[in-house]
């Protein structure tokens, strides 16, 4: 028994020597790998952008808004005779007569003349109650549009001229058409209806999306927008305060 105990003690000591004496190259290799992983992690954190965004709503209006003439079929106008001189799809120029209204009681004719150039659209019915009323629209072509973004007071002070804006229009889904890119051109110093207002200029003269698709300029288009308050990397977000 004593010999067996002695043998176990010798083997135990040998195992302790093997475990305790870790080769130096393994330690160095382990430190090198850990250091490389840390450096790689910092490089990736510095490359990956994590912008600070502010949500907003957007309203895009063409520079030339449509004009309209409403013909109401009321009792007061029952005796009038209307004569349309235009139809859907016609092109008109300033000075063209759209319709005449003849009043038999005083034997007089009244003329409605357009002050603008555009394409004619005639719609019937203003709403569910006024189904007989008609509207003559004169829709002009526009090459420019005014873009306004509205946002609430939270973090509104961080919005600055020159910041990037990404716009998605409701009429043209971003998953199909992409989004528009622009910059904050000016900021209105007063609130409107409890919201802040800023004007945006697109990065291109034409309305071309990130998918290289040109969008026609409609009279009014609405959608959502994201204002890039700061475009910092993950590294800058974590360690920015330390370096500042």
Describe, in plain words, how this protein is organized in 3D.
- A 6-stranded antiparallel beta barrel has the order 1-9-12-11-10-13.
- The chain is elongated, with a radius of gyration of 36 Å.
- The chain is of the alpha+beta class.
- It has 4 helices and 13 strands.
- Helices cover 23% and strands 36% of the residues.
Overall geometric form: elongated
Structural class: alpha+beta
Largest sheet: 6 strands, antiparallel, barrel
Radius of gyration: 36 Å
Distance between the termini: 71 Å
Mean pLDDT, nearest integer? 83
| DSSP E strands, number | 13
Number of helices: 4
Spans of at least 5 consecutive residues with low confidence:
1-6
| Helical content band | 10-25%
Assembly state of the chains shown: single chain
Give me the strand/helix succession.
Answer: HHEEEEEEEEEEHEEEH
- Strand coverage percent: 35-45%
Sheet with the most strands: spatial strand order: 1-9-12-11-10-13
């Amino acid at each position: 028994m004593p010999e067996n105990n002695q043998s176990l003690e010798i083997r135990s000591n040998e195992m302790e020597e093997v475990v305790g004496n870790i080769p130096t190259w393994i330690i160095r290799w382990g430190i090198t790998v850990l250091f490389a992983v840390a450096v790689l992690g910092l490089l990736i954190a510095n490359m990956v952008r994590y912008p600070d965004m502010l949500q907003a709503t957007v309203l895009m209006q063409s520079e030339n808004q449509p004009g309209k003439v409403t013909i109401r079929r009321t009792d007061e106008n029952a005796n009038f005779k209307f004569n349309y001189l235009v139809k859907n799809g016609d092109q008109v120029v300033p000075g063209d007569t759209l319709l005449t209204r003849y009043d038999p009681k005083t034997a007089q004719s009244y003329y409605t003349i357009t002050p603008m150039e555009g394409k004619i659209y005639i719609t019937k019915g203003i709403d569910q109650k006024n189904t007989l009323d008609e509207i003559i629209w004169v829709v002009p072509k526009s090459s420019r549009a005014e873009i306004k973004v509205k946002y609430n007071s939270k973090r509104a002070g961080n919005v600055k001229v020159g910041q990037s804006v990404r716009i998605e229009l409701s009429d043209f889904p971003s998953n199909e058409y992409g989004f528009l890119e622009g910059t904050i051109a000016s900021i209105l110093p007063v609130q409107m209806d409890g919201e802040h207002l800023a004007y945006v200029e697109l990065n291109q003269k034409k309305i071309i999306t990130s998918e290289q698709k040109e969008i026609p300029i409609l009279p009014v288009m609405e959608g959502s927008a994201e204002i890039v308050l700061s475009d910092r990397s993950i590294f800058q977000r974590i360690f920015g305060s330390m370096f500042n």
